Amino acid sequence: MTTIRCDVLVIGAGAAGLMCALTAGQRGRIVQVIDHANKVGKKILMSGGGRCNFTNTGTTAANFISANPHFCKSALARYTPGDFIEMVERHGIAYHEKELGQLFCDISSKQIVRMLLDECAAAGVQIRTDCGVQDIERGADGFRVRTAQGLFHCASLVIATGGLSIPSMGASGFGYEVARRFGHEVLPTRAGLVPLTLSGKHQERFAELSGVALPVEARCNGQSFRNFMLLTHRGISGPAILQISSYWQPGDDLRLDLLPDHDAEHWLREMKRDRGASELRTVLSEVMPRRLAVRLCEQWLKDKPVRQLDERDLLAAANLLSDFPLVASGTEGYRTAEVTLGGVETRKVSSSTMESQLVPGLHFIGEVLDVTGWLGGYNFQWAWASGHAAGQVA
Ligand SMILES: Cc1cc2nc3c(=O)[nH]c(=O)nc-3n(C[C@H](O)[C@H](O)[C@H](O)COP(=O)(O)OP(=O)(O)OC[C@H]3O[C@@H](n4cnc5c(N)ncnc54)[C@H](O)[C@@H]3O)c2cc1C
Fold first, then answer.
1. Ligand 1 pocket, 343 CB below 6 A?
2. Beta strand 31-34 with 126-128: parallel, antiparallel or unpaired?
3. Distance (Å, whole) CA 104 – CA 51
4. Second label for 159, Cα 20 to 30 Å away, from 115, 226, 267, 286?
């Protein structure tokens, strides 16, 4: 079997792995990157609807979920959205801000992969696809990694194999297995940024509303997100729901403000005063999609001229509209989730170098770690920042 010697071996040619490789290569390290998939950066390619929401200019540690909320601070401070934007601009990639600091390519996410590959090539990094790992051994002089394409011998080993979401794109639990094998704890994983499902009577009540979209404020476990919700044939989706899904687990109380731009009680009193003869469904249809307004009136609210709502009816309606209890049965799972919550526990990993405190020379970067961002470019910013942190020392 051929032996390939290098300073740094990165397993996983995704966002974090490529950033780590180009950073280490720029320091003059001999870097190899291997990936079991047939193509590099598959998630980058499919991200942001094909336009890659590559960062968020407002990134702070508060945009991440982790059992160790301080862990991400050091790397995020040392490689900022501005640093990544500088590279994007240097490569002449046109981009635009969509909402709230979210930056997307004007043309295609392929440009981000091309940029990372060009930077890797310029730094002398070698990348091999279709290269699965058979075994990893650690000796006094570094790591030996046996693969179908040869035996790699390296001083630093970087695990950048991501999380479990979208198995059809090459996701695997490999990084968690390596972590456990070297004595690291792996916190329970679950799908995040994922549509929620409804079942039984809760699904029937929303049946035939598939395709209805409206702004809501979704609230769960002390967190809230104001954005659009989309009713689907299996449940609910849209940015507000994807965001809150990362904070929700089966059985948790999930509430929706269906009129986030109004004080529901105040608005109903106004309607009673000014539009008393109108049916509730009529006035509601002016502030939310008609199909939903009609269904709310059929299933939950008393449908009668607004002036006939007595004080109790009015308060009950206001409460339902501003604090609607949504009973979700589960999530769509890793098949459609954008991220994986949980992962390699960070207390035994250096926050400045991503190096294991148990095994010198072993690094974990990107989504395999227990650091999960909100929707909006934060997950790529974490991949760039953690990859850069490891690449500076590996
Ligand atoms: C549909 C979708 C859209 C998204 N859109 C955005 C967005 O617009 N903005 C944003 O910030 N985030 C987005 N994300 C999240 C973002 O893609 C991830 O958080 C990010 O890619 C994580 O980077 P990573 O390098 O840790 O892992 P990945 O990019 O997943 O890379 C891991 C790599 O490791 C390889 N690998 C896995 N197992 C093995 C193994 N056993 N051996 C060898 N190689 C292996 C994989 O093939 C892959 O190439 C999106 C995710 C999805 C699924």
1. no
2. parallel
3. 6
4. 115
Q: In sequence order, which residues have a C-beta less than 8 Å from that of residue 201 and are 6 or more positions away? A: none
Question: CB–CB of 51/108 below 8 Å?
Answer: yes
CA separation for the pair 116, 120 (Å, rounded): 6
How many Å lie between the centroid of ligand 1 and the Cα of residue 15? 6
pTM score, whole prediction: 0.97
Choose among 296, 298, 295, 317: nearest CA to 306. 317
Please, what is the end-to-end C-alpha distance for the chain in angstroms? 26
CA of 41 to the centre of ligand 1 (A): 7
Which residues are CB-neighbours of 147 under 8 A, at least 6 positions away? 34, 131, 132, 133, 134
Reported as a single tens digit per residue, the pLDDT across 163-222 is 999 988 888 899 999 999 999 999 999 999 999 999 988 888 888 899 999 999 999 999
Residue spans of beta strands (DSSP E) within 281-376: 324-325, 330-331, 339-344, 362-364, 372-373
pLDDT in tens, 38-82: 999 999 999 999 999 999 999 999 999 999 999 999 999 999 999
Q: Retrieve residue 326's tokens.
A: 């949504």
Is 227 touching ligand 1 by the criterion CB < 6 Å? no
- Do residues 340 and 32 make contact, with C-beta atoms less than 8 angstroms apart? no
Helices (H), the chain: 15-26, 42-46, 73-78, 81-90, 110-122, 174-181, 200-205, 239-245, 264-274, 280-284, 290-299, 311-322, 378-391
Strands 142-147 and 150-159: antiparallel
Using alpha carbons, list the distances in angstroms from residue 321 to 176, 239, 292, 301. Answer: 43, 20, 11, 10
150-159 and 3-11 beta bridge pairing: parallel
